[in-house]
Structures are given as structure tokens and as C-alpha cells.
Amino acid sequence: MEIKEKIIRDLDRIINEYVNEEFVLGLSVGVVYGNEIIYTKGFGVKNVDTKEPVDENSLFHMASVSKTFVATGIMQLVEQGKIRLDECVIEYLPYFKLKDDRYKDITIRQLLSHISGMPDEDDYEWDKPQYDEEALERYVRSINEKELMWEPGEKFAYSNISYEILGNVIEKVSGMSFEKCMKENILSVVQMKESNFLKPLVSKELLTSPHVLDIENVYGAVVSEIFPYNRAHGPSSTLCSNAVEMCNYAIANMNEGRFGGEKILEPNSYSELWREYASTDWGGYTSEIGLAWFLGEYKGNKVRSHSGMDTGFRSNLIILPERGIAVVVMINSDYIGTKILCTSILDILLGEEVEYIRKSLASHIVRTMFSNNIEIALQEYNKIKQNSIEEYLVYDEEFNAIAYNLLERKRINEAIEVLKLSIQIFPESANLYDSLGEMYLLQDNKELALEKYKKSVDLNPNNIEGKKIIDELSN
């Protein structure tokens, strides 16, 4: 009992400090230790305007964590003999079609493991949500002009489109809507009573609001004008859940499908779900891909995980099955990463002493820039670099994410300012130059775009897309 009490005490301390130090609006955390739920708590507010507090039952949009439920649904149908993983998709969806004939060879397994060659979706039309039961099939029929990026099975490339197709397969094979199938065969079985893929059925009282970055008056957050929901993208993205119920789901997966006296899968299905199919090149505990689940190691422990991000929300589910440990984190803003929070919690669960959670350098420096100017922001960075850099996360990706967040808000000039600032901090980052080139191209400033793309390719000769753009701009 003492170990659990210490864990809870340490979690309370570091998470409360993190919420106070960082610009975290609303946060919910669930922790499983020794195969039992020991911690479910909410922090901050559900809505920046109403100030209603988050608790362990508050519901968050889970974004791409939804995909692991799709894989579970497919494996249930495999166990029933209704789907074969290596069967071609067209056997289940005769109307599935793409621009080139290679689509006929795509298998269910390839879609699940993101190795089908399918591209990703650019526009989820959250601002034009569809609610009718035909929305998913309509979407799958609408992708007939898309082309594969390479031969099916060749290599990994993350694709949300793949999961809409899989959700549609579940509908046709099960004979019920995707959302109903998920509710009856997975969510209800593991006592996820409030969780649902179908937003109209989600409790309005429990649901948190999405928040996006705002710089109108001061660097901060506002409630997003859109909620990331569209029934056409249900399978890839639209599960709403809470910390308690996601812990139930984590326990079921750690116990090879069993939860209480019920089960969502047979144990042998996990040899398919958690088998390594391809390298992601992402490293760390997401270095390989299984069926939906990302695979890897953290400090010598096997990890199964999936994270998510959509407008106004972030989420992460991490399972260490051999240790009986799981962490779920949900945030109702999209400009705060979840990884450092999750790994800090994991460190505590693995018996390490954690003094604090490192803060986001990008968030602090960009906030300083918008409150003052670039020169003062750089002075602040140099001061931190000399005195306390170990307390911060120093990642160029975080600056990049903020820039794209601003771009999504149609704040392209401010996004460019963020990238110009970040390049002074990371002068060797090919990715930042590539992003800046893209922003200048969006402004139709071809001269500056060409200059930045050339710099990006100089720093990273493997930037094939950058080379193509340089050729186009040069001609």
C-alpha cells in the first residue's frame, strides 16, 4: 500500500505543478498500476469561459486513439470467421476504388498497419459535420480519385483514410452501423458507459470544450468555433471517453482481451495486433507499427501505445503490458504536447524519483515573443540556455507545431514570425526551413520560398519533396 500511496502523492505534486507552470487548460489523467486503477483525476477547466472544473468523468475527444478500437472490432470479426486479414478490401467493399489499379491488391492487414500506400486526409470537414448513417460509406465512395503513394505493403505511412475504409468494412460485415458495433461489442463490454463514437449520444454535461491558440489580445486559449466531429471520419477519430473508462479499456488489453468476467478478444488475437509489421522511423516507444498499435520500448519495457490530436484536443494511451502499467492523458487544447507528461508519469510508476515535469521551451519563448518582441524572446532564451535549460523541453518540433497551429487559425504572418524566431534557436533544423518555405509559398512569395527550401535541402539532402518544389520554383 505504501508504494501506491507514494505514487499518488508524487503524481499529485508533479501534475499540479505542471498545470500551474504550463498553459494547460483542462487535463484528465488515468493510471493503472499492478493491473488495477489507482489514479483518475481531472485538472483545470472544461471550458475557459464557464470555468467548470474537469474531473475524472469529464469526456474528451480521443482523436486517433479511436483507431485501436477499430482494430479490436476487425479482430472480433476475424475470430468469428467473417474477415480474413490477408483478404483484399474489395472482397468486402466492392465499391472501394482508387485512381490506379493497385488498390485491388490492398488487404485488410495492410490498412490496419498503415502499409497500404494510402495517402492521408487533408480536410476532415469538421466545419461541415455529417450525422447520418450513410456518411461513412459516402466518404469511402468519394475517394475514387485518390492515388496510392507506392505499392501496397512497401512501407509505412500513417493514413486516416485507411481507418475510414476499415470502419466501413466493419459496417458491411457486421450488418450494423460502425458506432453501434463499437458500442455493443467493445465499449459496453468493458463498462465504458459514457463513451461513444456518436457525438449526439454523448453527455453534454460531461463533454469538455475544444480550445485553440489565440493571439488576438494575449497569447492564450479560446474555445474553438468547431468541434472535431464528422460521422464520415468516425473510425479514425471520433471516440469521446474519460479517464476511468479508458483505464478499463487499458486493463482489458493488458489482460489479452479480458475484463472482469467478460472479454473483447481472444488472447491469440494479440499475437496479430501486437506483432511488428513495419518500422515507423519515429524511434523510441513508437518505433514499430502493429495493427493500429504503435510498438517499442521505454527503459527496457515493452510499450503498446497510440496518441491523438485534432482541433482543440490531444490524447495519449500508453500500456506496458508486462508491468501491468498504463497511462491515459487527455487535454482539451491542441497546442500542448502529451509526451513529456506521459513519460514523467511512467518514470514515477517505474520507481524513479521525478522532481518536476520539464516545461515547453517553445510555449514559453513564443509567449514571450507575442507579449514583447523577437529580440526580448531571444534574450529570454539565452538567459534560460545559460541558467536553467535542463528544466525545459528543447525541441524544434514544438516551435513547428505552434506555427502550424497559427496557420490553421489563418494567422500566417504570425506563424512566419514563430518560424523565423525558432530558426535563430535551431539554425540547423531542416524541418523549420522547410516549413518556412511552405508558409512563404502560401503567401505566393516564391523568391523567399525557394531560398528556404534550398536551405532545408542543404541541411537534409533526403528531403525529396523539398527537391521537387525547388525544381518547380526554379522552372
TrEMBL record:
Residues 11-335 form the Beta-lactamase-related domain. Keywords: TPR repeat. TPR repeats lie at residues 430-463. Gene3D superfamilies: DD-peptidase/beta-lactamase superfamily, Tetratricopeptide repeat domain. Pfam families: Beta-lactamase. This is Beta-lactamase family protein. The lineage of its organism: Bacteria, Bacillati, Bacillota, Tissierellia, Tissierellales.
